[in-house]
Amino acid sequence: MRRWLQVSSVVLMVLVAPVTQAHEGHEHAPVTMKKAVEIALATARDASINSQPGLGLAQLDQSWRNLPTSAAHIYENGRGYYLVSVANSSQAKTLYVRILLDGRVEAANFSGDFVSSVATSSAGK
């Protein structure tokens, strides 16, 4: 009976550990291009509801809330990140969202120019 409890405990820990280590907002496995596009669209939507000071974004116009998936494209597939462009034709603007491979949004802007590198920004987070 004691041996059965030990084995059961180990099996339970192995099954539950991955779930308890998950975080909201990013994944541990590298995100796919499709997922990066979804994250960029969600970032634009969220910025239309509230400003995103951590990303340096003021609150966007509500026209950013319901953009179709076709509005977002992988602009650059860099080493350690995806740069996704999100075009809003009604605003005649394109938002560029830099997404690290773990799913974290590193930065966003309308120029597509990002000064920080993945190596330095990942070390500080």
Topology summary:
Elements: H1 2-20, H2 33-49, E1 72-78, E2 81-88, E3 93-100, E4 105-109, H3 118-123
Antiparallel strand pairs: 1-2, 2-3, 3-4
Kindly describe this structure.
This protein is α+β, with helices and mostly antiparallel strands and 125 residues long. The protein has one domain. 34% of the residues lie in helices and 22% in strands. The chain has a 4-stranded antiparallel beta sheet with strand order 1-2-3-4, covered by helices on one side. Residues 10-24 and 119-125 have low confidence and may be disordered.
Beta-strand portion reads: 15-25%
Number of helices: 3
Largest sheet: 4 strands, antiparallel
Strand runs, count:
4
How many domains, in number, for the residues? Answer: 1
Write down the overall geometry. elongated
List keywords for this structure.
125 residues, alpha+beta, four-stranded antiparallel β-sheet, 22% strand, elongated, disordered C terminus
How would you sum up this structure in a few lines?
This protein is of the alpha+beta class and 125 residues long. The chain has helices spanning 2-20, 33-49, 118-123; strands spanning 72-78, 81-88, 93-100, 105-109.
